[in-house]
Structure formats: structure tokens, C-alpha cells
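SEQUENCE WITH STRUCTURE:
===
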Amino acid sequence: MSETGYTKWVERASVHRAAGRTIDALICYRLALREIPDGAEAQFQLGAIAWQFGDVDDALALWRRAVAGRGSEGTVPGGLAAQRALADALAMLGRLDEAADAAKELLALHPKGRRTRRLIVMLDAARGYGADAAGADNGDAERALHDAFGVREPWPLALVAGVTLQLA
């Protein structure tokens, strides 16, 4: 088990993925995890592949493992990306409370994340809450929601539907 071996397999997998050889990439990421079993980058990428193939449960589990292994600073490559993927995937699935928790964890790790703040505003609106979790007071909730909707962001349909139902 070595970091050099892990890095070699992750780099090889990235080349395969860029060339459209997803199965070869999957094999290389799995070999990387033999070198370092809690490697966040390999887990994140395997989660993305699982999501691409429609294996939602495996994708969520892999992203959760990548997030759990990122360390207290959140600096391990793949850890922040996995946290964002987890929040987005849960929002897409309509699991809004879990998505909000994941988004708030992401905001704690990356406080300047404007997209994450907007996601939290959308999630809070869809769940019937104000915008205060994203840094706005309740008087600014409408403006924060308008700002979140106004960006050219492809929000998940389940999230938009939840917001629409709350506004109706």
C-alpha cells in the first residue's frame, strides 16, 4: 500500500475517463483503492461512475466514504467534490433534509461558496424555511431566493418543484 501507487492508478484512471473508457477507469480507481482504501479522490470518481450508470445507492455510499475520509481540514482531493456531489444528488432525489445537511457541511468547509449558499436558500425554501441558514435574515429571504433562481444554474427538478409548491 503506497501513495505513489495510489497516485499512479488515479492518474491512469483519469486518462481513461477523459478518453471515454469508463470501465477501464473504474478498474483503475478500484486498484487505487487497493493501495489506499480510504482515498477520497478514487471514491469520489467511483461514485460519479456509479451515478452515471444509475447505481444511486452505490454512488451515495462512495461519496459519503470520500467525505468521511477527507480529514478535518477538508483538503483531501475529492473530499469537497464528493460533498458537493452528495448535496446535489440528494437534492435531485428529493431528499431535501439530507441535501440541506450535506450543503451546510460543504458551506462549513468552503464558506465562500456562493453556489452552496444559493443551494441552501433553495433547499430551505423547498422545505418551508427562511433563508437565514445561508447568511440572510428572514427579511432578505425573498431577495435571496430570487437571487438563487436568477442565476443560470440547472437546479434539480425535485428542488424547483419543492420551492414552487411552497410558494403556491
About this structure: The two ends are 56 Å apart (CA to CA). Confidence is low (pLDDT under 50) at residues 71-75.
